[in-house]
Amino acid sequence: MNSSIERLLKFFTLEVERDFDNRAVLGGLDQMLAPWKEDAKSSGVSDEMIEVVTSRLRDYPKLSALSRKDVLQGVWNRVRKAYPDVPPFPGSGNEQEEQTAEEPPVQEPTVKQEAPVNQQVQDRVPKESVQLEKLSSETTEKAEVQEVQESKEVQSAVKSEKKDSTPPANPIALSAPLTTLSGVGPKTAKTLEKLELHDLGDLLYHFPRRYDDYSQLKPINRLWYGEEVTVIGIVDRISVRPIRKGKTKLIEAFISDGTGTLKVTWFNQIWITKRVQPGRGVVLSGKIDQYLGKLVMNNPEWELLEQKNLHTNRIVPVYPLTSGITGKWLRRIVHSVVTHMAPRVPDPIPQEVLEAANLDPLNLALQQIHFPDSAETLKQAQQRLAFDEMFFLQLGVLQQKSVWEQLETTPIPVPDDWIDSFVSQLPYKLTNAQSTALNDVLKDLASSKLMNRLLQGDVGSGKTTIAAAAIARTAAAGAQAAFMAPTSILAEQHYLTLQDLMPKVGVHVDSIKLLTGATPESERREIHEGLENGSVSVLIGTHALIEAPVIFKELALAVIDEQHRFGVHQRALLRAKGNNPNLLVMTATPIPRSLSLTIYGDLDLSIIDELPPGRQDIETRVLSPRESTRAYNFINSQVEKGHQAFMIYPLVEESEKVSSKAAVDQFETLQEKIFPSLNLGLLHGRMKPDEKESVMRAFREGVHDVLVSTSVIEVGVDIPNATVMVIEGANHFGLAQLHQFRGRVGRGEAKSYCLLIPDSEDDVANERLNALESTNDGFQLAEMDLKQRGPGDFLGTRQSGFAELLLANLTDIQLIEKARRQALGVFEKDPDLDLPEHKLLAEKVQQLWSYGRGEIS
Fold this sequence. Notes:
By secondary structure, this protein is of the alpha/beta class. Helices cover about 40% and strands about 15% of the residues. The strands form four sheets. The chain has a seven-stranded parallel β-sheet, with helices on both faces. Strand 18, helix 25 (about 690-700) and strand 19 (about 705-710) form a beta-alpha-beta unit. It is globular and about 95 Å long.
């Protein structure tokens, strides 16, 4: 076992022995975090594991003994996943895991006495249906005993008809492993891990992906083809016969209810014949089909009439599954957990917030989200749980912003005459929006308050100029600046821009360096030395900037371009290169208002919402696949006028899985058959960095007339002479990405064009593609993209709290604003959530924000 992990677990064990009194370490368990963190790093413990331990133990002294136990057990279980030789948590009852894995976690509830089956049918089936007299009370009693033996967890899952929304004083352990459930052994638990299900809490919050409404009960003589219904009846007969030369077994059953008879079939499920026997009452739910003019039901969900209805005759939850796990089995297990746990889960949302927001209690919402009584109770449960996610997210953002506002850094003076000098050196006049953004950034630099700003602007709006001003001022003041870009192509372009601009404002060109994966080792060593001694004041590069050998003497400013391309960990590593450096992140993807209120609520925001003079709207057209010749002819005509063109493809090489054109394959066809007299270049992500740079340099210098590329040119490539952007397979890209591609042209004085060619004629009417024809407004397109494709294109890899939204919709402005109002009210009253009534809330927010805590965008 890793030595630092072993030492950590010794502290935990001693804390357990002392009944969680926080005296296992002198001064409290949180006092060992700093020395342990250093020891863990040196012994090879992953950064993620270190962050898990330190973030969850940071507020350990503030917790109750019960909550301390949950925290320690949760951390212990996370450690155990990474280090299999770690024993079970002391006192958990799992020391002999193999022997006890099949035991249920809590005492089984008393099974509610079911009404006799005849009475059930009378209650559920219309009066015209025959009474099921064939099933005597004796038969029913035997059937009930059989069901207990066959499915113990179902019997334990029967819940009381009365819904008690008041949880008991002591919360139950959500961190208990799944093997504490009856019917879940180590092998099954391992399979469930594929669904990210590790403990009982994971299962409780494993929400259905959809619901099948089988709550409408109908007699057989009123069934219609195509409807989804529930039918109750008696099994008249059931048989098995081979079909398809014996390779498939067809199970046929005939079910009657006095109004008619329905044929039911299943395939290759012979075991059903042992359960669905003649004379037994069954409940069937499924879609009514037709065969040889008669109504049938194929592969329906079914239950014996004596059972609690989980799979039929109700709104049935449908869960995400994995190989080896069936929907029915998982539904029973979830039902058991929901029955035991949901009524006992404490509600972290303060009562005054629940009343102000008109929300259901948490325990009721958890019950109804899994097994709703009606469509209305399901909707209310979804609203409650979605509010929780957005509320916790908002509180975390507010706390994070507060932390940033308390950090201080060394101010960088910005004399008025320096600003005038910088602006006068520019080859163009700043727009009003650029001037406002420039003032925002330079004001941040001059303050002792740490800059934490997002600079947002459409493609070609001039964000790089603002970043260049901040970098130049930082370098001129004797400090260092780092500029990180997602690709070597973009990094080189920024390098050339700064090399041209910096000397004009007093920054020596030799102090500006470029560091990418293609930088030769000898040059790399010189850069490392220059950074340490301070002779390199500006470093532009890719991920190479965050490598261990890169050590700054005095990093005062970190600029990150296309911030959504970088993960939280990468941004944290760059910030860690300095002592509280100012941070400026930029994006050319316009951020919808809903995201500005949530995801980026911890950032100061500057928006450049107007294009520089001379930039023209790009004329966009959607062409059908058979009109591609028109696009090729148009490229020829533009090249004859001295211009250049891009051709974008969604794939590098052809794929059996995706039916679309690919760059490598099309390049040969285009060069040999379509444009034999033109010079074409090829660019894609599998090329080596120096190969990419060589191709881009040739295109920038006019050697290539047409650049055939994949999405690698999405951001930052600046070719003023390019006037045509042709995107093949345009239906494979999102609106934000298509808008980025389009922004690669129209950067010069000539009129520019974007031609979108989808894969099929059906895609010509694609709503997303037509939207690009109608507007060049990136913000409008971003709103549409968010609604159609979700937040993935905007977020990148941010805090886990954002990535794991299960129910909240980031397009629901009404929900966002309601959650934000309530979060602001709580935050203004108790920013650190120290009040007793906020204790559970503080634990929940800490839990959801434990990864990447303190990181932005």
